[in-house]
Amino acid sequence: MSSIFTKIINGEIPAYKVAENDKFLAFLDINPNAKGHTLCIPKQEINKIFDMEEDHYVELMKFSREVAKALETAVPCKRIGMAVVGLEVPHVHVHLIPLQEMDDMRFTKKEKLTPSEFEEVANAIKESL
Ligand code: AMP
């Protein structure tokens, strides 16, 4: 069965997409730690990040870096935090989180956004790319 992220790639379920190329996709986390929390994923469905081929892994990091720089421009924050967890969704994803404080890296502290707030932050990131 396809992962929920493969369904996003295939357009079967909606997402607030911010960047895409032939190999990778970035979209907003639906249950963000902080406004602008973004996930960068490979289109190839791979469970664990360190099982990726080295070149593919490096390309994912380059893609994530580009998105992180746009995110830092778009969302006022002290810096962008990066994490890889994968306990919930078994499809590689890099979390990029605008940080104001250490608690923003805790995956138990969540921010509620309206659809228009998601749209607004997604557009701001896209415009900063
Ligand atoms: P983890 O696998 O523990 O790294 O966490 C998976 C992340 O994916 C969580 O932060 C979820 O909020 C996020 N997530 C799950 N489903 C969706 C979805 N349909 N769209 C956007 N983000 C999602």
UniProtKB/TrEMBL annotation:
GO molecular function: catalytic activity
Motif Histidine triad motif, chain ranges: 91-95
GO annotation, biological process: nucleotide metabolic process
Residues of the active site: 93
Superkingdom per UniProt: Bacteria
Classification via InterPro entries: Histidine_triad_HIT, HIT-like, HIT-like_sf
One Pfam family of this chain: HIT
Residue ranges of the TM segments: none
Segments forming domain HIT: 4-107
Name of the protein described by the UniProt record: HIT domain-containing protein
Originating organism: Myroides pelagicus
Source lineage: Bacteria, Pseudomonadati, Bacteroidota, Flavobacteriia, Flavobacteriales
